[in-house]
Amino acid sequence: MSYRTLLLIVLLVPLALVGGARVTGQAIPVPVWGREYVLRFAVAGEGEEAPAVPLELPPIAGPDDPSRPLVVIDAGHGGRDPGAIGTDPEGRRFEEKAITLALALALRDELLRQGGIRVALTRSDDRILPLAYRPEIARRLEASLFISIHADSAGEKEEVSGASIYTLSNAASSEAAARFAARENDADRLNGITIAGQSAAVSTILVELSQQRTQEEALDFAALVLREGAGTLPFIPQPRRAAALAVLRAPDVPSVLFESGFVTNLTDRARLTTREGRAQYAQVLGRAIRIHLARRSEAGSGASAPGESR
Predict the structure, then answer these.
(1) At 262, which CATH number?
(2) Per-residue confidence (pLDDT) for residue 88, from 0 to 100
(3) Fewest Cβ atoms nearer than 10 Å: which of 61, 89, 168, 211?
(4) Pairing of strands 28-32, 85-87
């Protein structure tokens, strides 16, 4: 076999396989050094577009009174996205998606048990949810507070442990405000600020003002979580953090991301995966939520909330 013939085979066979995948839609097994990897090609037909996943608003639990404050709890990851993964010496696997859902359900039950607060979950089972949908659910439900619950991994550093809480960074806020104003310029009102009919520059400024207000509330809530969790939950050094996280970019809903601990740490994992441990998280977050909402009500938001306990 000539060198030229061999070269043609090397170039044409993969193209033929891909072409076959386009026609048949079948997976292609590719053997590599004793392992078999499967490449799947999702190819739309001519003129076709991938169908969009519809945004479905979840049910709201709690008082049947729209004047009551609403908290939206987001369990991070889900479905084919397991998130952070930890294993114990026996080889048991612990996935972030299951841990966050269990924590979200525990927090929901704690808030409902205390009464006076409405609650919605972005997901209540093991499903994948587009990242942009999570804060959008809170916006469309006109939530008073959005909490995204996560767990972390430190890889081989099993000694790393502790919870932390994130708010949106200032740099990310301005970027998000400009993008949001461009998309929402036809909306009637945003957090009490009219933006309809304004120029792009004016809309961006108005959204930034709204976002500044919600960020102040998010920072206040983050401080309450640390205060209420002191002596109960372990936190990492400097647990208050800011980052350009997509789930925190709603300009009209105070939003935080709570990193509950490390699935790679034995102590954190024991707390995250037991009923008693989850109850500790739920009680701490529940107290912080109720105090935050009471302060917001006293500041004249118009929403009724249970009084501050301390």
Answers:
(1) 3.40.630.40
(2) 86
(3) 89
(4) unpaired
d(C-alpha 98, C-alpha 276), whole Å: 16
Instruction: Compute the average pLDDT of residues 192-204.
Output: 52
Quote the domain boundaries for residue 215: 70-300
CB 102 within 8 A of CB 151: no
Q: What is the pLDDT of residue 170?
A: 74
31 and 80 together in one domain: no
Q: What is the pLDDT confidence band of residue 3, given thresholds at 50, 70 and 90?
A: very low
Residue 53 lies in a domain: no
Q: Classify 17 in phi/psi space as left (phi over 0), alpha (psi -120 to 50) or beta.
A: alpha
Supply 292's token pair: 């935050």
pTM score > 0.90 for this model?
no
Categorize the per-residue pLDDT at 99 as very low, low, confident or very high, splitting at 50, 70 and 90.
very high
Question: What does the pLDDT read at residue 205?
Answer: 52
Q: Is residue 143 part of a domain?
A: yes
Give SS3 for 169.
coil
Rounded distance, CA 80 to CA 55, Å? 18
Tokens matching residue 57: 């608003």
35, 152: one domain: no
Q: Could you give the residue ranges of the DSSP H alpha helices within the chain? A: 3-24, 96-114, 133-140, 170-184, 200-229, 266-272, 275-296
List, in order, residues 6 or more apart from 55 with CB less than 8 Å away: 133, 136, 137, 140
Q: Provide the number of structural domains found in the chain.
A: 2
pLDDT at 147 over 90: yes
Please report whether residue 307 resides in a domain: no
Distance CA 40, CA 230 (A): 49
